[in-house]
Design a protein that fits this description.
The protein is mainly alpha-helical. It is about 80% helix and about 0% strand. It is built from eleven helices and no strands. Helix 1 packs antiparallel against helix 11, helix 4 crosses helix 8 and helix 6 runs antiparallel to helix 7. The protein starts with a helix and ends in a 5-residue tail after the last helix. The relative contact order is 0.23.
Length: about 230
């Protein structure tokens, strides 16, 4: 569980460039609809950005808890004396897939994004109701909806949640992932440009990918008593 939590956090931290690409336009719509005196002051803008991201992470946690619950119920019906072995192999496999995705070696997770887009088309209109954003509470609502935006990175971490032992562990995994994405999506100005440049560096991405792949291999091949 510790390895999976760490993998989820690193995936969010390093993969948040992908989050900026997908969520940056939404954050732009959020900020551009605000009065100039708020947009030009980061201190006044923080409550809006923070509430948007809190809403987004709440949706991740809800999805993780739901995935963890459904996965735990499904595992009980498997014809195996030790279902946790299946969970271990699924987690290890998806860690490797996630590492390959972050390291830019194999973009298989984009297939999941296309599937998720079918669901997203149904709930996207709800997000439009919170625009233009006029107060932090509306920013929270926008984040709650946009947390369901199709994202291969999110789906990969959700796979860990599916094989978690329960809803609580599934939600905890998605919380770790969401916290990893926060630094990039809360930072603005020169620091944001520096973070984006750093996380887009292919060497950095591949180091992170190798770390997560290593976690996956450990998950797959380490004896259970370790």
């Amino acid at each position: 569980m510790t390895l999976t939590l760490l993998s989820a956090f690193i995936a969010g931290l390093v993969g948040s460039t992908h989050c900026v690409g997908m969520c940056g336009g939404i954050v732009g719509m959020l900020t551009m609809s605000l009065p100039n005196n708020i947009r030009q002051s980061y201190l006044r803008l923080i409550p809006y950005l923070l509430n948007y991201n809190i809403g987004r992470i709440i949706s991740y946690v809800i999805a993780g808890m739901l995935a963890g619950f459904l996965g735990s119920q499904f595992v009980q019906w498997l014809p195996f004396t030790n279902p946790s072995v299946i969970a271990k192999w699924v987690s290890g496999f998806f860690m490797i897939i996630l590492g390959l995705y972050i390291g830019a070696w194999w973009q298989a997770l984009t297939i999941l994004e296309r599937i998720g887009a079918l669901f997203w088309d149904k709930i996207k209109p709800l997000g439009q109701k919170f625009l233009p954003v006029k107060n932090p509470l509306q920013a929270l609502g926008l984040g709650l909806v946009w947390g369901w935006l199709p994202c291969g990175l999110v789906y990969a971490v959700l796979s860990f949640a599916i094989v978690a032992k329960n809803a609580w562990d599934g939600g905890l995994l998605m919380l770790a992932f969401g916290l990893g994405t926060l630094p990039m999506l809360l930072t603005m100005g020169a620091a944001a440009k520096w973070l984006i440049k750093l996380s887009q560096n292919i060497t950095i991405r591949r180091i992170a990918g190798i770390i997560i792949i290593s976690f996956g291999l450990i998950m797959l091949f380490m004896p259970k008593h370790h």
